[in-house]
Amino acid sequence: MLAWNSVLNQSGPTEFVFQVFTAVPEFQAFLFLLFLLLYLMILSGNTAIIWVVCTHSSLRTPMYFFLSNLSFLEICYTSVVVPLMLSNISGAQKPIPLAGCGAQMFFFVTLGSTDCFLLAVMAYDRYVAICHPLHYTLVMTQKLCVQMVVGAVALALLLSLQLTALIFTLPFCGHRREINHFLCDVPPVLRLACADTRVHQAILYVVGILVLTVPFLLICVSYVFITLAILRIRSAEGRRRAFSTCSSHLTVVLLQYGCCSLVYLRPQSSTSEDEDRQIALVYTFVTPLLNPLIYTLRNKDVKGALRNAFISKTAS
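User: That's the sequence. What structure does it adopt?
Assistant: Structure tokens below.
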């Protein structure tokens, strides 16, 4: 906590500004409208999932409990980044103070890490449902589901707090530093420190392994057992439905972990700031948007609940 307090007390009025995407006014307007549209779609889609899960008793199962929590995370995750990003696109470069940059990094890393842990929890839920269907209700109790979500948040908070505090104890020379990114992410901020960051880089790799590699390996192990169990299903229709349910989860997993690994686990010598910014757009906009699309368009229960809700609203 002493290190975190130094974020606020660090001497010097250090500020950061984000590098603009483009200086062409017409292209700025296009990007603003595009990102605003994607953001509104993310908000409406994920809010719809939370609403339908909370209001329909047939969806009060562990799978949909985790899905609604994932949707809530996606809303918070994008809201930490996108409003400030849109503000910078629509006008002049607005500086963000050191404490503000630290706060954005802390919440961004916390929510992103929780997202990764929750995807691993959802893989475990699918493993129990498919490999041990008769014991599913005994294993995946409401208490266990809540404990796993709380544990994911607590672990993410701990890692994020330590990483953010460690980075913002570094000196940043000069009054105003330009970040070649659209948010205060860890790698671009580390590049601006005027000190030796090799230890900090090593710690970032350790945190990246804990947040990305370990959950991804657990997901892979879960899906090996899931695949073996599905192949033992005699009914072709049963195999198809099981594969369809799991493939939607794997789509989000591969995008999320793949893109994040390219940013956080690549050697620093092979990284490009422009590439990192482009890849970050994927896990900032694409995966939060895919979450509601995949789970509604490929899920009969959610589609049915949404359709019934729409019909009842129209009739009333």
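The chain has one domain: 2-310.
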